[in-house]
Structure formats: C-alpha cells, structure tokens
Amino acid sequence: MTPCRNLISMGLLLGVLAACSSTPPPPDWQSNAHGALKGFTASYLSGNTAAAEIEFSRARTEIASTGRADLVARAELLRCAARLASLELDDCPEFQTLAADADARDRAYADYLGARWQGLDGTLLPVQHQAVLALSDAQADAPVLAAIEDPLARLVAAGALLRQTRLSPAGIELATEAASSQGWRRPLLAWLGVQLQRSQQAGDQAGAVGLQRRIDLVLGKVSTKP
Q1: pTM of whole model > 0.85?
Q2: What are the residue ranges of helices labelled H in 65-183?
Q3: What's the pLDDT tens digit per position in 190-204?
C-alpha cells in the first residue's frame, strides 16, 4: 500500500479522512466523508450556511459509522477552524464533548484555536502553525503569516492571533486579502468588518468609507457614497 500524505488543506483532513491513492481503493465511508467535508468547507466559507450544515451532517454520519470518536472529533476541529477563520469565536463545544477520545495532536490544535496557549506544546501543532505559536511579543506577525501558503491556514492563524490580541494591522490586511483572493464571502466580510471598526476608532473617515464600499459590494448593495 502506498502511504498517503498526512496533511490536507489546513492539516485537519488527516490520513484516514483523505481519499488517498491505495490498493485496494479506500472504503466508501472514507471517500464520502472526505467529499462531504470538502463540500462543507466550500459552502461555509462562501456563506451558504444551509448547504454547509447538510454537508457536515453527511460527513459526520459517514465518520460515525466507524465507531471512531477520535475521527469525529477531528472533523469537528475542521468545523471549528473554519469558524475561527471567519471570526466566529467559540470554545468549539462540539469538539469538547469528544475531547477525551481525541489524540494529543487534536487536543493541542483545539487549544491553539481556543487561544489557550499557555504551556501548549507547539510540536504537536500542524507545521504552519508552529511558527505562529512561537512568535514573541517583539516579533512582527506579518512575515510569519505571509509564509503560510495555504489561504485557509493563514486565516486560521490570523484568527488565533486576533484571539490573543496580538494581530497587527498588517496581519489583518493579510487575512483580508487571503479571503478576498479566494472569493470567500463569509471570512472576507468578517475581516473587512474588523478593518472598518479600527478605521472608525482611529478617526480615518476616508478609509472607513472605502471599506464600507467593499462590504456593500460583497453584500450586493449599491453604495451611494463616493
């Protein structure tokens, strides 16, 4: 059997959830779950909540058919990460109910997403997030975020830093443009909202007007402001 890569997308569709090349072919539940999780992610980030919920329910049903609570927990982590990328901040309650059955890497990743960084072992995190965890207060975050090639992983990292109140304006801009480049409406609106709030607080009227125009455009509204 040919070994398959362990990390797909943001490091959450691990191993057995991936439709990896193998002989014999992977079981149906594996392929179905992988496809449904991809569908969930695409629908959620595009802002189609109803379709996302249907896809995730389908994925969870497929995975639960194995009786593997650790795999269900891993799928819940994917949902938590997508929410964090879109700045929907919570403590991942669905994962917490399964945390006792999750492996150490997944529990560490849940702590990372939840901003529980004190004493967190960075070696248990996906590689692209280890450098984020290691950032000192004196280091600029933008170069580390820019080095994360996967746009969803970059958004997750930016969201984690925002929860830590350590995200710089340059980091916020990188997150915004990561969402924009992919056409992901849900996180784009969230990050534009952060920029708009900061512009308003800084008294930057021109910047706020420009950001509101972008938000209106994404929402399909016609802005009357020049």
Answers
A1: yes
A2: 69-85, 93-96, 104-113, 127-133, 142-146, 151-163, 169-182
A3: 999 999 999 999 999
